[in-house]
Amino acid sequence: MDLIAVERFDQVLRLSKQESNRVGFIPEPRLRREFCRECIITYEEDGKVLGYLHHSPIGKETRIHQIVVDQSVRRCGIGSVLVRMLICKTPLGGKVTLRCRDGLEANHFWPTLGFEIKGARPGGRARGRMINCYER
Ligand SMILES: CC(C)(COP(=O)(O)OP(=O)(O)OC[C@H]1O[C@@H](n2cnc3c(N)ncnc32)[C@H](O)[C@@H]1OP(=O)(O)O)[C@@H](O)C(=O)NCCC(=O)NCCS
Question: Which of 30, 64, 70, 105 could form a disulfide with 98 if both were Cys (CB 3.0 to 4.6 A apart)?
């Protein structure tokens, strides 16, 4: 990684740690690997990462693993831009899927981008919430 990429990755890592409660914990080495494989899309302004989306192919579908927008700039359309950037990269007709814990505010976000709940499964015992399975 060059210096700019290292700085960009550090900002992604910071956002990921801030929201690990909501988006789940991914160990730093794995996140770094995924970043190098270009499985992380970032939204930046003036060299500052304001949001990122982590995804990867799973069989024929594209799975969104994490999306985080900096708290100071939420509800400004950045999350929507990140998802649209991913959709542009996705093969035509390919499914995009994700899981989202029931009760999170993000459950209001996904339907605005055409995602629908296709099922739900029990979450971890510690959290005691259902996990919604979205698809678009
Ligand atoms: C979910 C998240 C990525 C959304 O990013 P964002 O940039 O704020 O989203 P947008 O501005 O593109 O929102 C688009 C629309 O989604 C809906 N929406 C987004 N956040 C919402 C919220 N907290 N409550 C209700 N509706 C919401 C609104 O309809 C919004 O349009 P509006 O602001 O014109 O009303 C961001 O809130 C975030 O980082 N949350 C913490 C991490 C997280 O929960 N990730 C998802 C786990 S599944």
Answer: 64
